[in-house]
Amino acid sequence: MKNFTVVDDTGSATNFFFTSCFSGKQTVTQPSGPGFLNWIFQITSGKQTVTQPSGPGFLNWIFQITSAMSILTDDLKGIIFRALPTIEKGTQQALIDKLLGSGLESTQDLKYVTQEDISDLLPAIQQRKLLEAFKNETEVITLDLQMFPSPAPAVTSPLAHSCSSPISVVSLSNTDSNSSEDCGPSILIRKSWPETFQVPWNLMPVEIRSAVADGKRPSPAARRQMVRVLADEMRRHEQNPTRSQCVTVCRKITRQYPQSFADLRDNGQLLGDGYTSLLIQIKNRIENLNRNSSFRQHRSSGDGLKRGPTDTYGCTRFQPDLPPEETDETVEQKRQRMEEIYRRDGTNGAERAEVKQFMETTFCLQRRQINALPAPAITDLREQWPYFFTQKGPYAHFELLTDIKVLRALELAMEECGSTIVEFFKNKPTNADVRAVLSLGPNLELSFGIIQLLMAHFSETLEGLILLANACDTAADVERTLTLPATPRLILCVSGETPGSCIHRWMISLEEHIICEGIQPTFLTGLAAVFSTYYAFNLQYHDDAACTLEFIQRWFIGINPERGTKAGRGKVQSKKTGKIAQKKVTSVNPRVSSLLKKLMDFAWDFI
Which listed site, 43, 144, 279, 553, has its alpha carbon 20 to 30 Å from 418? Predict the structure, then answer.
């Protein structure tokens, strides 16, 4: 029983005791009165003194509204948690309070929420994730509608006569007329089987049911049994379900039980859309079952020539507007001023506060020039933006582009999960190359060893990302002695018997030239710079290191868009025909997804 003091329009006070006996009432018509939504919000927030609007049946009406608001609050909590699994409870409640205080009356009103409404509560990336979830929540699903004349009455409703519908469809009849005459044609809404698919949890292994109940991850063996049961049940509806049909089923499972089945990083962040590994397992199982059957279904999709999605992938400020106080002329003047400082002070000027401020202010002009088509040559950009190509230049540009401090993200990743990765490969070396890297022991810097392990696991050669040079080599020496490819490479200037055991400094090459030199003798500072290069210059991951780069992106950096990919559409040899075919492109590389899932499973036991 909760006590509220309600002050009426005349100023007299009356104590009302609201009891739960009214909670079962149905929705009533909203009475008129100024400030209605704010007033209701005050009551539902627990404030005790509010102004009572006029209207009959006030007590009943208040409890009907508060009951509805409680349901809306629970719905909002679920939507926010699915979009941001790691959000703190205090921030989640603040979001809900602000949405309700802004006049939100139902989940359908979420489509009217803008980024400005929640900008003071969440970082930019989380704002966009939440708004995307709001959009998905309020999207109208287009269903197949078919008009059929109503045959003989089959189902009688107490509100209407002779309006029938076949089994397994929903009949929406014309109820405008209260007469018992023919209701006219019915609109039959047919849902596809994936939308109504029921997971046979009663057929699942005991371990799966226990994991779901306890919010824990099942073992790989139990998960494989679950996939077999799911595949068999899905094939009862369709022998060879399409990928989109499998996506619908997988999405429902991972949204219902994210802790048990979703693809999560160690900090709880979703990897991509969260269901990629489960989707791959189910599709592989179905394809295996259909392999020996005569059933064949071929699908194809057209290739687009637009490169925009790859370029903007993972970026939050791909092409920003001018700052409010700036014009095209003023930002160009600042660019020219930086050229003058560079001619006078060289790379030492990069640490000046004036240069740092100018680089941030002119970011919009940098993006405009980089994004131009055809793309400008790197040599031209180096002439116009010399401080972009200093050691910290790529870091700063990447942070403005993605809202992520790339070097700090890599350092934290190595601290949190570096040892887990090494122990995983020690327990389960996947090939001879992995064993060869492990045999080097402690001679390698930890981060360098981890990258070598990843490249060995993915059967990618070290030269696909990293080149080695002598400790005393200059940039000119490297360009003369090494064959530099067009795609980015991290060049380590090393000494010692073991390659990479002693790193003196590093360089970055692009378009067959050295574009950046770093003075810090650590592998991670160079890795952060070369990774930033792919995003700064709108580059696809090249095939020689695509898996490793995507692993770094998703696991270490934490860039996990639900759609799109940074990998190129290369060509591979078909295992079935032996012919060269276009490589399939998926949002998450299957090999990367598989390793991520294995690492997550291993981490549960390792921790």
Answer: 279
User: Cβ contacts of residue 184 below 8 Å, gap of 6+?
Assistant: 150, 173, 174
Q: Are strands 13-18 and 144-148 parallel, antiparallel or unpaired?
A: unpaired
Compute the average pLDDT of residues 269-287: 82
Angstrom distance (rounded) from CA 571 to CA 472: 39
Cα–Cα dist 141/572, whole Å: 37
Distance of CA 390 to the CA centre of its chain: 31
Structure tokens at 344: 């006078």
Q: Name the residue ranges covered by the structural domains of the chain.
A: 2-137, 144-190, 196-290, 430-590
> β-strand 186-190 against 170-172: which pairing, if any?
antiparallel
Helical spans, DSSP H, in 161-216:
193-196, 206-214
Distances (CA, A) of 541 to 292, 402, 459, 527: 36, 17, 16, 14
List the alpha helices (DSSP H) in 84-219: 89-101, 115-118, 124-138, 193-196, 206-214
Give the Å distances, CA to CA, from 529 to 221, 405, 407: 40, 11, 8
Out of 125-129, 166-170, 487-491, give the one with best mean pLDDT.
487-491
Which pairs with CB-CB distance under 8 Å and at least 24 residues apart come from 249-257? 249/194, 249/197, 249/199, 249/282, 250/275, 250/278, 250/279, 250/282, 251/275, 252/197, 252/199, 253/199, 253/278, 254/278, 255/82, 257/212, 257/215
Distance CA 127, CA 116 (A): 9
Average pLDDT of the chain to the nearest whole number: 77
Distance (Å, rounded) from C-alpha 134 to C-alpha 24? 28
pLDDT recorded at residue 339: 94
Pairing of strands 2-7, 49-51: parallel
Backbone torsions φ then ψ of 395, nearest 5 degrees: -60, -50
What is the predicted pLDDT for the residue at 173?
A: 40
Cβ distance 101 to 38 under 8 Å? yes
Query: How far, in Å, CA of 580 to CA of 111, rounded?
Result: 46
Least-confidence region, from 198-202, 221-225, 571-575: 571-575
Residue spans of beta strands (DSSP E) within 211-348: none
Cα–Cα distance between 211 and 312 in angstroms, integer?
Answer: 38
Residue 375 or 563, more confident = 375
Measured in degrees and rounded to the nearest 5, phi and psi for residue 443 equal -70, -25
Q: Tens of pLDDT along 429-455?
A: 999 999 999 988 777 788 999 999 999
Q: Kindly report which listed range (225-229, 256-260, 438-442, 510-514) carries the lowest average pLDDT score.
A: 438-442
Residue 110, CA distances (Å) to 90, 101, 458, 506 in order: 20, 13, 43, 49
Q: Is the peptide bond before 374 cis (omega within 30 degrees of 0)?
A: yes
Q: Is the pTM of this model over 0.90?
A: no
**117-129: buried (b, 16+ CB within 10 Å) or exposed (e) per residue?**
bbeebbeebbbeb
